[in-house]
Design goal:
The structure is a homodimer. By secondary structure, chain A is mainly beta. Helix content of chain A is 10%, strand content 27%. In chain A, the strands form six sheets. A five-stranded mixed beta sheet of chain A has the order 5-4-13-8-9. In chain A, strands 6, 7, 10, 11 and 12 form a five-stranded antiparallel beta sheet that branches. In chain A, strands 19-18-22-23-24 form a five-stranded antiparallel beta sheet, with no helix packed on it.
Chain lengths: 455, 455
């Protein structure tokens, strides 16, 4: 706090650099050649096979040359008229042409609308950031829009000085911002039972990724005088009517990773995602990221709360229940092409998908188009971050014959995403939670893509 | 394409790891101690000064102990009732309590609403991702919501085979996803004239940062048969009525950085940001990120288009105009505390802000609270990416006396953000564009924060 230094104030300002050399202004001339070709079916596939690409030209959908007469060229209205002013859009919304892109509930999954799930439309998302409007959502007794000026956050239990914070107080404290995925422990649950859910929105859509901002929980515990020799766990408690309480081990907290978060993707959390405060527990299943967070209680044993004793437990092959298996192990899924999509013709496609691990960074993703006999290594988009989604891409030329597309991720610990056969050998067939098996998409000859389960 | 390998399919699945040891279920006991204290004014400031922190307790805003009677404890409705179902929210929106958080136009800045600017509310944003609904927006003849099924993208000029693409064709090609800032060349323009614009939304709010997804332009040019020995520049042309055309040098394109983008923060571009297609030119001022992109023309000289000859040029001290100075040089700004905000009392604050450079990564940010006499190095949040916003944070205990807060960024090239004095020595006082000077915020004794210009 007091170690001031004046370096590097003595640095000299460089002269601003030019972007282009000054070659003067050249008058634009009209260009008459324009065209279109079915390169996806013909040329690009040929190029991909290693030959030169003789690209055919066809006259359609002409783009007018500059200086032309808009009446002659049938220019669209948006090229010849005044548009709308943004002054009416203080908070922007997607295009009207994207109205079908929504998170969607699965009505049969839970018995009341007040305890339900909305799945993120992974098949149409790009990169790793989930738009907050499409972030998946799981609530246990409905969601609320809580007045932040009335919300309070308490720390009590095994601390020297119990404390209560207002939101204003929390937001004046040292903050961190980090990208992390959040996945419900029940993601891909229905597929355990060999039921092929039709689309990736419903198989894997309880998964999202955001930049979260807030105060490291360890800083708040230290402020309250936690005794780390005695305190081994905390209980996180939400303010909604579901009485959600979850046990978090102290070693995750002392690592500095657990955040008492108010920000998501640059703005305040959305109401259905816990506004104004939720816990961020990187790598751990979503239920522990307690929403509407009102209390952290410090203790020396796990609490065995109702959502730890009855729900979010794994039924093992020997009939026992495994508790507290909260770390989301390495997993991936191809999002395009995926179930419910249709490939309109043969030729080049970009296969793309997501990989993640609750134990660290993704090291590698392999993709198969023949049901796992042969694998090729996919490109990983930067940045590759710990406990965060990683986007992968790989080229594919579809020959029109049936294909089975799979992805298999490996994380920095060396752990490799299992096949269903491998997973069931350990976990049995009657579980619900923590299914991280390799997903298979069948591309039929007619281009339809379907969910199939391979051993 | 054909180099298949089967490694590492022989890997053995590790047994899933336990999150917690099985210590059984412990019944929750009620906790009676709860409290609240003005730690921000007293204890935390004391702690920051190096002493122990004797934190006072006060009874207010009690959080109920579990098991209590909600009627006695005055539990809020959201703790005792069913909430809303998310089934009605296919595309979520911010809390009602955040309604004041909007991008805002500056009515006096341009003469018609069809050619205007909306500034992003930087003072209230977290991290580096700008929510797409709050992304800054500059349009030259209104904005449009163009039907993507009718939109076409052409490549012509000095290529072997001119080509026209539909959106479907573009979206089947190899894609990349990258985080980049976009800043209007006129950001912070009004401050050139020693006019202290009141808030950071209006001084620096023509700045945003997103994850963009699309096809590298170089891949498309190679498909069209570009001759890189002759082709030195491209002209990017938009489809809206402003006839926006900008020259881009080929060396930026051959680096692979320039993207023909359709995705922004995981979903399709927003209409006011160029839906369905815009050019992404990392490090370069926003006007070159042509919206509603309909054409790339390849040539061997810069075009000197109207928005290059008349606008986005720098009036130099000798009376000449400098063109094509498009690279956004290293810059930073403190976003909290910032102009228009009020510090309600003395004590601890988290000073936070943004730094960026069009020439690479941010290497370091220093913060001063005494108008530049002393500097301390701020913490940079991860990841620090090239040509991307970087979030910085630093602790500060306000003693209630007047303070002048500044930030000074340095990028990986060694370039240091200039003072106004340094900038004016090179650029004069009558310019509009490319003001990257150090910003000063005065904190008055009454807590009000104001924009002041220091030499």
């Amino acid at each position: 706090m007091t170690s001031y230094s004046s370096e590097p104030s003595g640095r000299v300002l460089k002269a601003p650099e030019h972007f282009l050399s000054q070659e003067g202004i050249k008058t634009v001339v009209a260009e008459s050649k324009k065209g279109r070709r079915d390169f996806l079916r013909n040329a690009f596939a040929t190029a991909a096979a290693g030959a030169a690409a003789p690209i055919a030209l066809a006259q359609s959908n002409p783009v007018p040359a500059e200086g032309g007469d808009p009446n002659i060229l049938n220019l669209p209205t948006h090229s010849t008229s005044l548009g709308q002013s943004v002054a009416t859009v203080g908070y922007g919304v997607p295009s009207q042409y994207e109205a079908n892109l929504q998170r969607r509930p699965s009505p049969g999954l839970t018995q009341t609308t007040q305890a339900s799930v909305s799945f993120a439309p992974l098949q149409s998302l790009f990169g790793i950031v989930t738009p907050s409007g499409l972030h998946f959502e799981r609530h246990h007794q409905g969601w609320w829009d809580i007045d932040p000026s009335k919300h309070r956050f308490m720390i009590n239990g095994m601390v020297k000085t119990p404390m209560v914070f207002t939101m204003d107080e929390l937001m004046r404290l040292p903050s961190v911002s980090r990208f992390h995925f959040i996945e419900c422990g029940a993601n891909t649950a229905v597929d355990w039972g060999n039921v092929a859910v039709p689309t990736v929105q419903y198989t894997h859509g309880m998964l999202s990724c955001s930049e979260f901002t807030g105060v490291p929980l360890i800083a708040l515990l230290e402020l309250a005088g936690v005794d780390l020799k005695k305190a081994k766990f905390v209980l996180a408690e939400g303010a909604d009517g579901s009485s959600m309480t979850r046990t978090i081990p102290m070693d995750l907290i002392t690592s500095g990773e657990v955040i008492v978060a108010y920000g998501m993707n640059g703005e305040m959390l959305r109401p259905e995602n816990g506004y104004p405060l939720r816990l961020v527990v990187p790598g751990v299943q979503g239920v522990s990221w307690v929403k509407y967070l009102r209390r952290i209680k410090v203790g020396d044993k796990p609490w065995g709360a109702k959502d730890e004793a009855i729900h979010y437990i794994d039924l093992m092959p020997d009939g026992t229940h495994r508790q507290y298996s909260n770390l989301q192990e390495c997993k991936s899924v191809v999002t395009t092409p995926s179930g419910g999509q249709v490939l309109l013709d043969k030729g080049f496609y970009n296969i793309t998908g997501l990989a993640w691990s609750g134990l660290g960074k993704i090291k590698r993703v392999d993709v198969s188009v023949d049901g796992g006999r042969n694998w090729r290594q996919a490109r990983l988009e930067s940045p590759v971050l710990s406990k965060c989604l990683t986007r992968f891409n790989i080229d594919w030329v579809w020959d029109g014959k049936p294909a089975i597309i799979q992805s298999r991720a490996q994380d920095e610990t060396g752990y490799v995403q299992p096949t269903y056969q491998q997973l069931r050998a350990v976990r049995g067939t009657r579980s619900i939670y923590h299914n991280n098996a390799i997903q298979s998409w069948l591309v039929q000859e007619d281009g339809e893509v379907k969910n199939v389960q391979l051993g």
